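#struct-queue
[09:14] JT: dropping the first one here, sequence first, then the structure tokens:
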Amino acid sequence: MVPISSGFVTVDDVDINNVSPAVLRRRLTVVPQESFILPGTIRVNADPLGLSSDASIIVALKTVGIWDVLEARSEEGRSCLDTILLESPLSQGQQQLFGLARAMLRDSAVVIIDEGTSSVDSETDLLIQKVVREKFKDCTVISVAHRVCKISARL
């Protein structure tokens, strides 16, 4: 995200210095250790650019196991996706899961996950690893982790 001062980085044999920052940002998704929550609804937080259908958003949130938590916090008579997220804050681990769901909704060639399992229990860690293997199988995934991860295809 910061211009390179020396050397080079290539993705699929393309020097990223030759790619516009706007294109690079669209094709690269980062899931930070401390996932951000925007002012607004669950829908806006899951898909800030408004490119995904409600059904796709729900599938992503169900896939990471957070849909039931969000649905339980929604206001009666209102769609869960219309719930204001900051009015019902998520735990750090839930925010990490939400950030992973957000990444699933983007069409990215490269996904960078920074400490994606740092605030979750071992069961959720396994879920995250499974989701990454299945949902990002056609992407280059760079995962920064201090915890040793099992990378094999079988769990």
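[09:21] JT: and here's the second one, same format:
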Amino acid sequence: MERLKALRHLRAMSQEELADQSGVGRATISRIERGLSGAQGRTLRRLAVALGVEVQELVRIESNDV
């Protein structure tokens, strides 16, 4: 999920820092960012809270077609 990585970088957070603040494992964050695993429900909410965004912002799909 590129959006997760972008938001994390905007906040100058390492995966470890995001893991500490969200309670989501660093390895899980890595897998989500690389597209090897999806994130749903509770995990999305935890990541969104730690990043200071709404869940919708975290999963927003950007389109260059518009």
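[09:30] RK: nice, looked through the second one.
[09:31] RK: The chain has five helices and no strands.
[09:31] JT: good to know. The mean pLDDT is 90.
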